[in-house]
Amino acid sequence: MRAIQITEFGGPEVLREAELPDPVAGEGQLLLDVDSAGVNYADTHTVEDSYLARSSLPMVPGAEVVGRTAGGRRVVALTDNGGYAQKAVVREQLAHDVPDEVTDGQALALVVQGLTAWHLLRTSARMAPGESVVVHAAAGGTGSLAVQLAKEFGAGRVIATASTPDKRERALRLGADAAVDADPEGLTERLTAANGGRKVDIVLEMTGGPVFDASLAALAPFGRLVTYGMASRTPPTPVQAAQLMGRSRAVVGFWLMHCLGRPGMYREPMAELLAMTAEGRLRPQLGGVYGLSEAARAHAELRARRTVGKLVLDVTR
Predict the structure, then answer these.
(1) DSSP labels for 204-267?
(2) Per-residue pLDDT tens for 78-120?
C-alpha cells in the first residue's frame, strides 16, 4: 500500500511517501480501506517527537481516518497513528458510523477537533449558560467548532481571537460576538474590552507562551483557563499557587486521549456532534484538501498558520 512514513524525526521534510505491507487487523480491530485522513496540529509534534506521547520509528503518522470496512460500513475512527496510508487498522470501539449527510471532511473535523471542543467546554471548563468564553485560534479546526458549540451551549458572549482580519471575520460569521487580534501584546486589555470592560469567565488556549500569560491575566474570579496545546512551542511563565488563589482562578489541562475508554466520553459526544452536523446545526470548517503525497506541504502550511478549518489528505490520489 501507499503510505507516508517517517524514518527520522524532524519537520515536514521527513514526511516521505513509501510502499509498505498492508496492516493486519487483530482481535477487536477493523481493517479499513482509507478514503481520507485528517491532519492535526498534534501530528506536527508527533513527527518531531515533541508531543505528550513519545513517538517511535519508523512510523506512519495520522490519528484519524474515514474509510470502509470489508462489509461496506463507512466509518470515522481514531487510530494509534497509521492514518496517512491507503489502509489502516483501528480499534472497533473507536470506529463510528458516518451518516450519509456528513462528508468525509466534516467527519474528520469532528473526531479529534470536534470532540476536543466539546470536552473543553463541557468537561474541563464546565461552561454554564451566560458565561463569557474566549476561543483562541478561532478560525482553526478546533477553534471554529468551539465558537459554534459555545453559542449552542448557551454562552453569554463568545470572544474569538485570530491573527488576520480575514480569520477574525470568519469567526464572526460562525457566531462569535467579538473578534480581536491574537497578538499577545495588549491581549489582556483587548479581551477585557471585548467583554464590555469585564474580565472573562473561560479561555480555551492552545498557543502557550505569552498568549497563555495574557489569557490568565484576563480571567475573572472563578474563571477557568483550559490549556490544550502549545502551538508556539514556547512554554508559558510558570504559574504560582498564589496567582490562582488571589483571584480564585483555575488552570485546567486537557488531552483527548484521556477520554478514550471512559464511559460517556467518546461515543456519546461523537454521536451528538455527528447528529448536529447532519442537521446543519454545526458547520465544520473545511480547509485544504491534499493528495497523500502532499502531506509535507500540508504540515508546512499548518505550521506557518496559513490554513483555516480542517485539513484533509485525500488518500485516493
Answers:
(1) EE-SBHHHHHHHHHTEEEEEEEEE---TTSBPPPPPPHHHHHHHT-EEEE--GGGGTTSTTSSH
(2) 998 999 999 999 999 999 999 999 999 999 999 999 999 999 9
Residue 110's identity, in one-letter code, is: L
- With cell 484519524, the residue in question is 64
pTM: 0.91
Find the helix or strand (DSSP H, E) in which 202 lies. strand 200-205
Q: Starting from the edge strand earliest in sequence, which strands make up the sheet with 200-205, in order?
A: 178-181, 157-162, 132-135, 200-205, 219-227, 250-253
Q: 198 φ, ψ to 5°? A: -110, 150
In one-letter notation, the amino acid at residue 306 is R
The CA-atom distances, in angstroms, between 42 and each of 55, 62, 201, 288 are 12, 9, 27, 17
Contact between residue 274 and residue 97 where contact means Cβ atoms under 8 Å apart: no
Q: Which three cell numbers stand for residue 310?
A: 480542517
Q: Which residues pair with 161 in a beta bridge?
A: 180
pLDDT in tens, 212-262: 999 999 999 999 999 998 888 888 989 999 999 999 999 999 999 999 989
Strands 87-91 and 74-78: unpaired
Residues 267-281: b if buried by 16+ CB within 10 A, e if exposed? eebbebbbebbeeee
Domains, the chain, ordered by start? 2-97+285-314 (3.90.180.10), 118-258 (3.40.50.720)
Residue 278 CA to residue 275 CA, distance in Å, equals: 5
Rounded distance, CA 199 to CA 179, Å? 16
Number of Cβ within a 10 Å radius of residue 112: 21
Find cell 490568565 and name the residue.
216
